[in-house]
Amino acid sequence: MSLAPLTRSLSPTAWDADGEHHRVAVIGGGISGLTCAFDLQRQGVDVAVLEAGDRPGGVIGSERDGDYLIETGPNSVLFKPEFRGLVEDLDLEGDLIRTPMRDQPRHIYKQGIGLQEVPTSLRAFLRTPLLSRGGKLRLLVDPFLFGVPRREITVADFARRHVGREMFEMFIAPFISGVYAGNPETMSLQGALPRMAALVKRGRGSLTRGAIAKMRADRRERRRTGQPRVPSSLCSFDTGLGRLPEALAEALGDSFQPGAEVKSIVLDRGRWRISVDMRDSGAVEMTSDALILATPASTARALIADALPGAAEPLAQIPYIPITVAHLGVPSASMTREARGFGFLVPRGHGLRILGSLYTGAVFEGRAPEGHTLLTVFTGGATDTEAINLSDEELLAVIEHDLRIAQGWNGKRAYERITRYEHALPAYRMGHVERIARLEREARAAAAPIAFAGNYLHGISVVDCIAQAHRVAGEITAALPTRE
Ligand SMILES: Cc1cc2nc3c(=O)[nH]c(=O)nc-3n(C[C@H](O)[C@H](O)[C@H](O)COP(=O)(O)OP(=O)(O)OC[C@H]3O[C@@H](n4cnc5c(N)ncnc54)[C@H](O)[C@@H]3O)c2cc1C
After folding, report:
1. Share of the chain residues as helix, strand and coil, in percent rounded to the nearest 5
2. CB neighbours of 280 closer than 8 A, spacing ≥ 6?
3. Interval between CA 137 and ligand 1 midpoint (Å)
4. Which among 233, 293, 295 is the best mutation to test ligand 1's pocket, defined by most ligand atoms within 8 Å of the CB?
5. Which residue, of 26, 76, 232, 360, has the greatest Cβ tally within 10 A?
6. pLDDT tens, 65-98?
7. Average pLDDT, the chain
8. Residue 55: what pLDDT?
C-alpha cells in the first residue's frame, strides 16, 4: 500500500485556495473516521483524514508474524449489510473469507463440568448441563411479564427479570464480558443493547413475545420482497481484518494523512481552525468548513473542551475499560480438548480468571502453521481492572493455569504475544442514552457543522461503527454551508 503524503490537500494555502468543494476534516483514521471520509469523498466532498498513528485502522490491526496472522484488535466481523456494502464498494469480495455461524459453536466453561457447547436448539437447551432444571424452567416466566421499563435499566436487572439469575450468570454476563469487556451491573440496557430493549417494547413487556413478533414480521417481509433468509456468518479477509481500513485509505489516496496528530481545535468565524503536529513537517494550521471527530471519547473531549464546552461534559463521563489480549500459537496436540468452533467464555465465580478465548486458528484458515492452532485469550475487562497490571510472566501463569483446566493444555507453545489496551473499549454506563443525546444536541447547535463518530456512541462493533459513520457522513453533507 502506498500512502502519498498529503501536502496538496493539507498545505494551508492549498486548503484555503481551493474553493471548489465543501471541505471536511475528519480527525481519527480508525474504521469510523475512514468510513465517514469515504462516504464524503464519494459524494464529491473534499475531505481530509488526520490520523495520529502511522497506519489506518485504529484498533483494527492485522500483522503477519512468521507463520502466524495476528489480529491485535477485532478478529472477525458479522456479515451484515453495512459491512457487505463497504466490501462491495471497495471491490474486496475476492479477499473476503466467510464462515457460517452455525459451523462455529460457542462454548461456556462451568466449574466441575468444563467446557460445554452453547445450545442452539430447543432439544440441546433442554439437555445442556449449563443450567439446572430450575434455571431452564425460569424462562417460562417471561411470556407472562407485562410492563415496559420507563427508565433506563442495567443489563443485569433486565436479564434477571426476563431470564432469571442462573441464565444471567451463565450466559448473559459472560457475553457482556466477551463482547464489551463490560460489567452488566453498571451497563445501560438501552445504551448497550438497544435492540434487546426494542424487543421488550415490541412484546409489551416480554422478551419472548417481542422476539416472536419480530421473527414473524421478518418472515412476512422476506415473503413480500422474495428475499431468502441469509444465515449469519463471520468474516474477515485473507490477510486479516486490517485489509478493510487499508483499502479505505487506498481509496482516499492523498486525503488520508497518517502521522498527523491534531493538537487543538478553535471555532473561528464559522470555520474550524485545526492545529496539527505533522510527524514529517512539524506544526501546521488549517481550516475546514465542517469537522468530524472520530477519535476515542477522551481525545474528542480534550480537543473540543474550549470550542464546545457543552459537548465536552458528556464526553468526560464515558470511561474506558482495560483489557489484555494474549495470542498463543500452540501445537494442536498440546491440548486434550480440541479447540474447535468460535471459542469459549468464562462466567465469573467459576474458578478461572481469564474472560475467555477465541479459537482463532480454527475459525479462519491461514492463521497458524500446520499442526498448530492460534488462541486469542482475553483477560481483564470491567470486572477485573487490575489484570492489566500483571507482568507478562504473571499473566502467562494465569492463562496457563486456566487453559490447563479448560482445554487440557500442557503449556507447550510455539508463539506468544501480549497486547495491553489500557483504554480498550468504552463503558456504556447508566445514563448513556441521555449523555449521547446531549452530546448530539450540542453538536447540532454549534456555530459550524460538527459531528462525532466512534464506538462510544451507538454500539462498539465494527459494523456498528460503520453504520454510525454512514449516518454522520449524511448529516455533515446536509449541514455543509453552500459556497459561491
Ligand atoms: C481487543 C479488541 C477486540 C475487538 N474485537 C472485535 C470483534 O471481534 N468484532 C467487532 O466487530 N469489534 C471488535 N472490537 C471493537 C471494534 O474493533 C472497535 O470498536 C472499532 O474498531 C473502533 O473504531 P473507531 O474508528 O471508532 O476507533 P479507533 O479504532 O480507536 O480509531 C480512532 C483513531 O483516532 C486516532 N486519533 C486519536 N487521537 C488523535 C488525534 N489527536 N489526532 C489524530 N488522530 C487521533 C487514533 O490513532 C485511532 O486511529 C474490538 C475492540 C478491541 C479493542
Report:
1. 40, 25, 35
2. 5, 259
3. 41
4. 295
5. 26
6. 999 999 999 999 999 999 999 999 999 999 999 9
7. 93
8. 97
